[in-house]
UniProtKB/TrEMBL annotation:
Pfam families: Polysacc_synt. The keyword Cell membrane applies. Keywords: Cell membrane, Membrane, Transmembrane, Transmembrane helix. It is found in: Cell membrane. The chain crosses the membrane at residues 27-51, 71-90, 110-131, 143-170, 177-195, 201-220, 241-268, 288-306, 318-337, 349-371, 383-405, 411-434, 446-466, 472-490. This is Polysaccharide biosynthesis protein. It is a multi-pass membrane protein. GO terms for cellular component: plasma membrane.
Length: 496
């Protein structure tokens, strides 16, 4: 079987969109532009977040993290899984059935607007009670009320982003992301510098409104290009898509946002809780940063998997491996030498505990990136109700672990994430095999076990504070093993 070779000139042509018909051309085009999009939308805000963490300190940054967590909690119900619904059905139908595409777009927009407004009102009204009785910080009520506006605009932006991905217009997403990333970072730094926590939250709202305007203009251009009329009056005909995909997607998400919020609440109600949550949030930024890579690739692969009924062996392997391997390659040096990251946050954060939490949360990113490919196949195979059960068990494991380890603060919270994801993934392996969600050798094989062993060993070396020389030697050997696996075991043949 010949190995995949992509000459540089061919790569440039594919990235420019010259070949939009072949599988390889679609994948390279989508990943290239979605990578630009993600780097801009995540990179600039990441820099701003580091600066904000230094300006606000551990306590203030912990409060900002709790506000974000609360918004995410309510956003779960506001979003209703409508973004992923838009991506799947627009990818399947926009070229073959424009009328139905228009009805589905109308339905997702109406549901999104209604749910966003309702959840905004609920958070606005509940803000004083939540701040006083749940967050143990009554002074956060005004900031929570400002943040409630995010529930309207973030919900609509999520649907619009999913719609654009469904059209395969990744270059358009990249253009928006570059502009939005610069604006977001500028607003955040300015807001925090002059107005502290309130300024940070206000900047988030303004940025969300700008996003909505930019995405709306792009959607208008796309529906004109594909001769699609967004139909609100007849959109109710497509209500079945809510039951098949949106509802289980929302219920699956309910087991994430609210559960994370509950876990954070448990931590902040321990001695020095907000400071510990601030440490955790700073470390968790890097898990989030690494998660953007699977997001980049997944945004491209989901519409490709949805539009292609024939299960191509190459794309099935890529669906599982590409996100995971990219994250592993970046994560291994960071797990081995997290001290490099900790320096960015200043003396207020630098400690052995912070370094340990950093290593653990970067390890978590490796677990979640592996699960990304499986999650996409659950969507494509209409198995999202099983995804709900998957996340219910994850929620049970996370909250149970946090309750047991809460006195360890940020370290206990990070260990809880590892326990929850690891146990949940292992328990569902028989189901993945039974339903043939992904190829068997992508779950059970010597190569898969070896990669997990590499990750575990490097993480343990860091937690045990082994000398940098030994960690460097182990890291070098690990990369050699990964290269050999790809050289002799995994190749993708004629990927066209």
């Amino acid at each position: 079987m010949s190995k995949l070779k992509i000459p540089f000139k061919s790569l440039i042509r594919n990235a420019a969109g010259d070949d939009r018909e072949s599988l390889k051309g679609k994948l390279i085009y989508g990943i290239f532009w979605n990578l630009i999009s993600a780097l801009a939308s995540q990179g600039f805000p990441m820099i701003a977040a580091i600066i904000a963490a230094r300006l606000l300190g551990k306590f203030g940054y912990g409060q900002l993290g709790m506000i974000n967590s609360t918004v995410i909690l309510f956003s779960t119900f506001a979003g209703l899984g409508l973004g992923i619904t838009a991506t799947k059905y627009i990818a399947q139908l926009h070229q073959t059935d424009p009328e139905r595409t228009g009805r589905i777009m109308g339905l997702t927009n109406l549901f999104g607007l209604a749910s966003g407004v309702v959840m905004c009102i609920i958070l606005f009204v509940m803000a004083p009670w939540l701040a006083a009785n749940t967050l143990a910080a009554p002074d956060l009520a005004p900031a929570l009320r400002i943040a409630s506006l995010l529930l309207i605009f973030n919900t609509l932006v999520g649907i619009q982003s999913g719609s654009i991905a469904g059209f395969g217009a990744f270059k358009d997403l990249a253009r928006i992301a570059i502009f939005q990333g610069i604006i977001s970072a500028s607003l955040t730094i300015t807001g925090v510098y002059f107005f502290g926590l309130t300024g940070a939250v206000t900047a988030m709202v303004i940025n969300s409104i700008i996003n909505f305007i930019l995405y709306k203009r792009t959607i208008n251009n796309l529906v004109k290009r594909f001769k699609i009329s967004i139909n609100y009056m007849k959109s109710w005909r497509e209500r079945d898509v809510i039951w098949k995909l949106s509802l289980p997607s929302m219920l699956s998400s309910v087991m994430v946002g609210p559960v994370v919020w509950i876990a954070n609440v448990i931590i902040i109600n321990t001695p020095g809780g907000y400071g510990q949550l601030g440490l955790f949030n700073a470390a968790d930024q890097w898990r989030t940063a690494l998660a953007f890579l699977p997001g980049v690739i997944g945004t491209v692969l989901l519409p490709m998997l949805a539009a292609n009924n024939e299960e191509n062996e190459n794309i099935e392997k890529l669906n599982v491996l590409i996100s995971w391997i990219v994250v592993i390659i970046i994560a291994l040096p960071l797990i081995s030498f997290p001290e490099i990251i900790s320096v960015l946050y200043g003396n207020n954060y630098y400690s052995t505990g912070f370094i340990e939490v950093l290593a653990l949360m970067i390890f978590v990113s490796c677990i979640t990136s592996y699960r990304e490919g499986i999650s996409r196949k659950l969507v494509v195979k209409n198995l999202m109700w099983w995804g709900v059960l998957d996340n219910v068990l994850w929620a049970f494991f996370l909250i149970g672990s946090v309750m047991l380890l809460k006195n360890l603060g940020a370290l206990g919270l990070s260990l809880s994430y590892i326990i929850a994801y690891a146990l949940n993934t292992l328990l569902f392996v028989p189901f993945y095999l039974w339903k043939e969600v992904v190829p068997r050798d992508m779950i059970i094989s010597k190569e898969i076990f070896l990669l997990w062993a590499i990750l575990v060993v490097q993480t343990i070396l860091t937690l045990l504070n082994i000398s940098n020389l030994i960690k460097f030697i182990s890291l070098t050997v690990s990369f050699i093993v990964i290269i050999l696996i790809f050289q002799y075991k995994w190749n993708f043949g004629n990927f066209n």
